[in-house]
Amino acid sequence: MRSKARVFLCRAALGALLFVPSCASVPSQDSKPPAQAGIERPTWRVGDRWLYAWTTGATKGVKKSEVLGVRDVGGVQYNVLRVEKAHLYYTSELHWAASIVESRVVARATPPQPWFNWPLEVGKRWQYQGAYEERERKDQMRDSYRVVGVESVAVPAGTFRAFKIVREVDSAVVDQYWYAPNVRWYVKWVGRRGTDEFQELLQEYVPAAQAGAPTPSADRPAATGGSRPRP
Questions:
Q1: What backbone phi and psi angles, to 5 degrees, belong to 41?
Q2: Rg of the chain taking only CA atoms, in angstroms
Q3: Is the CB of residue 106 less than 8 Å from the CB of residue 97?
Q4: CA-CA distance, 97 to 109, in Å (whole number)?
Q5: How many whole angstroms separate alpha carbon 88 and alpha carbon 8?
Q6: Which residues pair with 72 in a beta bridge?
Q7: Local structure of 39: helix, strand or coil
Q8: Is pLDDT larger for residue 80 or for residue 37?
Q9: Is the dihedral of CA 27, 231, 109, 171 positive or negative?
Q10: I want to staple 126 with a disulfide (CB 3.0 to 4.6 A). Which of 111, 117, 206, 227 is the partner?
């Protein structure tokens, strides 16, 4: 049970499990590749939602993530993402800091874990060294990350051009995840924890309603007509 719980928490660290037909608010982006100069950190809005279908072995499920807002903790502001019963805390750079369930910290990373390093650019690499803590254990972590390319990724929500990132800890822990600028989060995630393998696919993305004209995303210019939503 402990290993399965840890698999969940590590997966939750990245966010919405983070995956029916696609919601009409998310157009496929196969014809609009992200700008190769680099993709900047997205801005989440309260009410942004992602729905993912996940599989772990023969087990399947659906999971929803929703942005709750920004909260101040000890003078530091965190973006808070609700993933089922857990509240995930991210720094302003969207580095995962902690998971909280029923007002109790159930997992944390010190310093916060950099699943992303902005701007995203093909060939970029970074390292992380820190401590991962749960209620009854503490492990030292040494992770390596790299952006291996931009790919066209087909998921239930549509087809997206996305940055593929690989995280490696050792032969037993590997993650591959695809960040799509148009949905401001990942659209696919494949990982392994020992003998446990899992996959998550984006089913639906619903951006928060906002007043006034939408702001173009970093990977494409403003449209000249129509009312297609923007992240």
A1: -60, 135
A2: 17
A3: no
A4: 5
A5: 12
A6: 77
A7: strand
A8: 80
A9: positive
A10: 117
